Prior knowledge:
By secondary structure, the protein is of the alpha+beta class. Helix content is 43%, strand content 24%.
Amino acid sequence: LTTAAFLAQRLEVSERTVYRDVADLQHQGVPIEGEAGVGYRLGAGFELPPLMFTQEEATALVAAARVAQTWVDPAMARAIETGLGKILSVLPPAARVSAEALTMYAPAMALDDATRLQLQTLREAVQARSKLRVSYRDLAGGATERTVRPLGCLYWGKVWTLSAWCELRGDFRGFRVDRMSSVTVLDERFRDEPGKTMADMLRRVEAERRERRAQ
């Protein structure tokens, strides 16, 4: 028998999480024998379904990963690399060889190092719901400082922008990442408020698009 404490240590989760997940698996019909406080074992004859991709699917994953790595921040690029390695390691040999032999590459020149690091700061601030102080240059070269609520990072094929609620303007604004001269993560956190969320911004964009089409 394998104890919940052992599983929790190996999986780096709490024992409560192990108990909950085991119960979910048992409910789905996985023949796990045992009980909390004693230990668990997998019933004889049960096998997990293999992770299966066709050669075309595996090749597409490699192509997408190679392109994405040049357009995301360093931390996410590393996560893509390790995640792809885990997928390739469990593929059938033919699919793995075909995927690794793909002669399609994305040279690492899409974003300069400063912009990539800036993008990582913005992405992490969005996830942490941390306000930002942004020093920004507009299209005409004018400099401005804004305190913003970062809502999401958008990729437009050539550039990244930050969609945010601008406290100076009291409205949604978009900021090109490559025009940010500095970004400071503030200690102040924010919560979603009606009219100031990413969903609100997307609804407005869609409404404006429909209005333009109707004209």
